[in-house]
Amino acid sequence: MPFELSVDLTTLAILALVAFIAGFIDAIAGGGGLLTTPALLTAGLPPHLVLGTNKLSSTFGSATASFTFYRRKLFHPRQWTHAIVGTLVGALTGAIVAHYLPAEWLNKMLPVIVFACGLYLLFGGTPKAPLDSDAPIKKKWQSSQGFSLGFYDGVAGPGTGAFWTVSSLLLYPSTWSRPAAWPAA
Predict the structure, then answer these.
(1) Could you give the CA distance from residue 96 to residue 57 in angstroms, rounded to a whole number?
(2) C-alpha pair distances (Å), 13 with each of 20, 38, 39
(3) pTM for this entry
């Protein structure tokens, strides 16, 4: 169903500022979608377009972060094959489900999801798993971690990067997974 999008310059400037701040937050810890999703919904965009726009911007941030980790030899794709495949399958499945969800339902649920994720990330705290720089990568958890986070990212998305950080801190307690251990970009 085609629609006409008419956004004034002030709204566009505010959305650009929110996108910049969200990108900065995404680069540090993930969770920038918790800003962009409500901003785009408030600007009057249809929810499916909001999801797609948020996904497009977060894809660039994720790709840049992944490349930076790879270039600095902090990420070895072969060790994460199960997570990558699980994420691809989960995200595709989630995007297909989101495609069939009614816009009215998404308009009601996306703010609830953003609010709940925001509360969790604000008050949930950082996992206190013991650090072990020689901890093996637990491949048995990678597929389910990747699929569940990919599915959530495909259906809704806000906060997925932060959830990746939290779940990785719990599942893989090595020093590379701690933000304080990451080298400056």
Answers:
(1) 19
(2) 11, 15, 12
(3) 0.80
* 33 touches 20 (CB < 8 A): no
- Report pLDDT digits (tens) over 32-51: 888 999 999 999 899 999 99
| pLDDT tens per residue across span 47-99 | 999 999 888 888 887 788 778 888 988 777 888 889 999 999 999 999 999 99
DSSP string, 72-87: TTS--GGGGHHHHHHH
47 with 112: CB under 8 angstroms? Answer: no
* Rounded Cα gap, residues 16 and 29, in angstroms: 20
**pLDDT value of position 181:** 46
Q: Which long-range contacts (CB under 8 A, 24 or more apart) does 88-93 make?
A: 88/146, 88/150, 89/146, 89/147, 89/150, 90/146, 90/147, 90/148, 90/149, 90/150, 90/151, 90/152, 90/153, 90/154, 91/150, 91/151, 91/153, 91/154, 92/150, 92/154, 93/147, 93/150, 93/151, 93/154
| Measured distance CA(64)–CA(16) in Å, rounded | 19
- pLDDT the model gives residue 60: 82
User: What is the DSSP code string of 3-40?
Assistant: ------HHHHHHHHHHHHHHHHHHHHTS-THHHHHHHH
